[in-house]
C-alpha cells in the first residue's frame, strides 16, 4: 500500500493503518532499533512502541515522508530505551562504537543547562550537516543517524570500508573543529 | 548524560531532505562497468592508438592483452557510438607502485588548500568536461624536483558530456578530496594537447587517476579509490628504492605516446593518415569555459 493511503487510514482512525504500517515497515524499524539496542526484547518493544507512537501522532501530524517519520520515532524511542538500560549495561549493535566516535568530537567537561545545550547543539549540528558535501553528508548520516555498520555503508555506496572510515574520520574532525569554535571544547 | 548520546540525539534533528538523500544507493553498477569495459576493450584492440584518451596515454599492454586485472570505473548513462573508443580511462589496469613511480614526474605529500570546479571544452573530442582543480601545497617531496613549499594544481575529471549526446559520469576512479586533506600523490603533466588538456604547464594529473592518490592518517596511507592501505614509512621506503631504478622523466607520458604511435604505424596497426590525425589533434588545446 502506498504511504499516502496508510496515512489516510490512520487519519480515519482505521486500525488497518497500523497493520499496513507493520507489514511495510517492520523490517526497516527493526533494523534501526537493532542498531541501537542490545536486547532483542527491547528491540521488539521499541518497534511496537513505534506503531503506537504513529497511531497517537497521526493525526494531528501528516508526515511528508512516512518512512523518515518512522525512522525518527524508532530512533528516538530506541535512544530513550537505551538510556534506561545504560545503568546496567551499554547499548548493543552499532551504538557503542557510534557513541564512542561521537564522544571524540565533544568535551565531557562542558557544564551547561542540559535543555539549552540540546537546542543549541541541534542548531549547530543541523547547520554543520547542511554544509557538508553530499557524499560526506550521506556517509555521516548513515552512521550517526541510522547507526548503520561501516560495512553496510560501504556496500550501499559501493566504496571500500577503508574509504568509509576515512570519510567518517574527516567529518568527525570537521565536527570537532566546529564544536570547538562554538565553545564546546 | 553521555555527550556522545547528546550529539547522537542532536543529529536526529537534521532535515528529512538530507535523510532522503542517504537512501539513494550509489549510481555505480558493476554489471554496467563490465559491459562498457568489454566494449571499450574491443574497440581499442581494433583502433589502437587513435582511440587513446586525450590526456592519458596508456602502455600498449593495457589495451592489447587481457591477462591483467582490468578495472572498469565509470557509469555510462549513454555513450554515442562515435565516442566509445575514447574511453580508455574506463578500463585502467591496476597500477603497481612500480608503475606509479615510473610514470610520475612528481610524488609528494601534499595538503589540499583549495578546491574549485571548472568546465572545459574539448574541440578534439567535441565534449564538455566537468573537472575539479585541487590546489595543494607540497610538504615533502619523494620524487621529482624539489618543490617543497610550492603550490600546484591537481586536475581531476568528474564527468564529460559529448556534443552529440551521451554523458560519462560518476567515475569510480575520480577521487574526492576536501580542503585540509593530507595526501600522498603521484603526478604527471601531459606536455601535449588533445582531449581536455589545456595550454600551459600550470596543472598536474594524478597518475592512474585515483590510484595515484592516498589519504594520509596516522602514518597510514589509504588508497583513495581501492581497498588498499599501507604503513606510510614502508611505502616511502619502496618509493625511494624505485627512484633508484627509474630516473625521473618529466616527459614520460609524452614520450610514451611518441613511441607507441610510431610502433603502431610501423606495424600497420594504424595508417599514416590516422597517425597524422592523432598528432594534429595533439596540437589542439581545450579551453576553460
List low-pLDDT spans of chain B: 27-91
Radius of gyration of chain B over alpha carbons? Answer: 20 Å
Tell me roughly what share of residues is in helical segments of chain A: over 70%
Averaged pLDDT of chain B: 74
Distance between the termini of chain A: 49 Å
Quaternary state reads heterodimer
Structural class per helix/strand content of chain A?
mainly alpha
| Largest β sheet strand count, sense and barrel closure of chain A | none
Between the first and last Cα atoms of chain B, what is the distance in angstroms? 54 Å
Query: What's the tally of helices of chain B?
Result: 8
Total strands of chain A: the figure is: 0
Question: Strand fraction band of chain A?
Answer: under 5%
Largest sheet composition of chain B: 11 strands, antiparallel
Biggest interface: chains and residue counts? A-B, 58 and 42 residues
User: What is the H/E string of chain A?
Assistant: HHHHHHHHH
What is the typical, i.e. mean, pLDDT of chain A? Answer: 84
Helix-and-strand structural type of chain B: alpha+beta
Instruction: Give unreliable regions of chain A as ranges.
Output: none
Share of residues in helices of chain B: 25-40%
Q: How would you summarize this macromolecular structure in one to three sentences?
A:
The complex is a heterodimer of chains A (185) and B (289). Helices cover 73% and strands 0% of the residues of chain A.
Give structural notes:
The complex is a heterodimer of chains A (185) and B (289). Chain A contains nine helices and no strands. With 185 residues, chain A is an all-alpha fold. Chain A is 73% helix and 0% strand. Chain A has helices at 3-11, 16-36, 40-57, 66-85, 95-103, 114-131, 134-144, 150-157, 161-181. The model of chain A has no long low-confidence stretch (mean pLDDT 84). Chain B is α+β, with helices and mostly antiparallel strands. Chain B is built from eight helices and 13 strands. In chain B, strands 2, 4, 5, 6, 7, 8, 9, 10, 11, 12 and 13 form an eleven-stranded antiparallel β-sheet that branches. In chain B, strands 1-3 form a two-stranded antiparallel ribbon. In chain B, strand 11 and strand 12 form a beta hairpin. The longest helix of chain B has 18 residues, at 30-47. Chain B is globular. The N and C termini of chain B lie far apart (54 Å). Mean pLDDT of chain B is 74; it is low at 27-91. At the A-B interface, helix 4, helix 5, helix 6, helix 7 and helix 9 of A face helix 1 and helix 2 of B.
Amino acid at each position: 500500500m502506498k504511504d499516502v493511503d496508510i496515512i489516510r487510514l490512520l487519519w480515519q482512525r482505521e486500525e488497518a493503518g497500523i497493520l499496513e504500517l507493520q507489514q511495510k515497515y517492520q523490517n526497516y524499524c527493526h533494523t534501526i532499533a537493532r542498531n541501537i539496542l542490545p536486547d532483542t526484547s527491547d528491540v521488539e518493544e521499541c518497534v511496537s512502541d513505534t506503531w503506537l507512537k504513529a497511531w497517537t501522532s497521526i493525526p494531528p501530524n501528516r508526515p511528508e515522508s512516512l518512512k523518515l517519520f518512522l525512522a525518527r520515532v524508532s530512533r528516538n524511542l530506541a535512544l530513550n530505551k537505551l538510556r534506561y538500560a545504560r545503568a546496567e549495561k551499554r547499548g548493543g549493535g552499532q551504538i557503542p562504537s557510534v557513541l564512542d566516535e561521537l564522544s571524540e568530537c565533544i568535551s565531557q567537561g562542558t557544564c551547561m543547562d542540559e535543555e539549552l545545550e540540546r537546542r543549541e547543539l541541534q542548531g549547530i549540528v543541523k547547520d554543520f550537516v547542511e554544509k557538508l558535501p553530499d557524499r560526506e553528508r550521506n556517509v555521516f548520516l548513515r552512521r550517526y543517524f541510522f547507526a548503520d555498520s561501516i560495512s553496510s555503508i560501504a556496500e550501499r555506496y559501493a566504496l571500500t570500508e577503508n574509504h568509509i572510515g576515512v570519510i567518517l574520520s574527516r567529518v568527525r574532525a570537521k565536527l570537532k573543529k566546529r564544536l570547538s569554535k562554538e565553545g564546546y571544547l | 548524560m553521555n555527550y556522545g548520546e547528546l550529539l547522537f540525539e542532536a543529529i536526529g534533528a537534521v532535515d528529512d531532505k538530507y535523510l532522503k538523500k542517504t537512501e539513494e544507493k550509489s549510481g555505480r553498477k558493476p554489471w554496467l562497468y563490465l559491459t562498457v569495459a568489454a566494449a571499450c576493450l574491443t574497440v581499442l584492440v581494433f583502433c589502437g592508438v587513435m582511440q587513446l584518451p586525450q590526456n592519458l596515454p596508456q602502455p600498449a599492454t593495457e589495451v592489447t592483452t587481457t591477462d591483467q586485472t582490468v578495472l572498469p570505473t565509470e557509469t555510462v548513462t549513454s555513450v554515442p557510438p562515435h565516442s566509445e573508443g575514447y574511453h580508455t580511462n574506463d578500463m585502467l589496469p591496476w597500477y603497481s607502485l612500480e608503475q606509479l613511480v615510473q610514470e610520475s614526474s612528481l610524488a609528494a605529500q601534499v595538503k589540499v588548500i583549495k578546491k574549485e570546479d571548472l568546465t572545459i571544452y574539448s574541440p578534439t573530442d567535441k565534449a564538455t568536461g566537468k573537472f575539479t582543480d585541487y590546489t595543494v601545497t607540497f610538504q615533502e617531496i619523494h620524487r621529482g624536483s624539489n618543490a617543497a613549499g610550492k603550490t600546484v594544481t591537481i586536475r581531476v575529471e568528474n564527468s564529460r558530456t559529448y556534443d552529440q549526446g551521451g554523458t560519462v559520469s560518476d567515475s569510480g576512479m575520480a577521487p574526492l578530496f576536501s580542503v585540509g586533506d593530507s595526501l600522498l600523490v603521484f603526478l604527471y603533466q601531459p606536455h601535449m594537447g588533445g582531449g581536455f588538456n589545456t595550454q600551459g604547464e600550470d596543472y598536474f594529473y594524478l597518475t592512474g587517476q585515483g590510484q595515484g592518490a592516498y589519504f594520509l592518517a596516522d602514518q597510514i596511507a589509504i588508497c583513495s579509490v581501492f581497498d588498499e592501505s599501507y604503513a606510510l614509512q614502508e611505502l616511502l621506503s619502496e618509493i625511494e628504492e624505485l627512484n633508484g631504478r627509474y630516473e625521473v622523466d618529466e616527459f614520460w607520458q609524452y614520450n610514451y605516446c611518441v613511441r607507441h604511435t610510431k610502433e603502431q604505424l610501423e606495424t600497420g596497426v594504424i595508417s599514416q593518415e590516422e597517425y597524422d590525425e592523432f598528432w594534429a589533434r595533439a596540437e589542439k588545446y581545450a579551453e576553460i569555459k
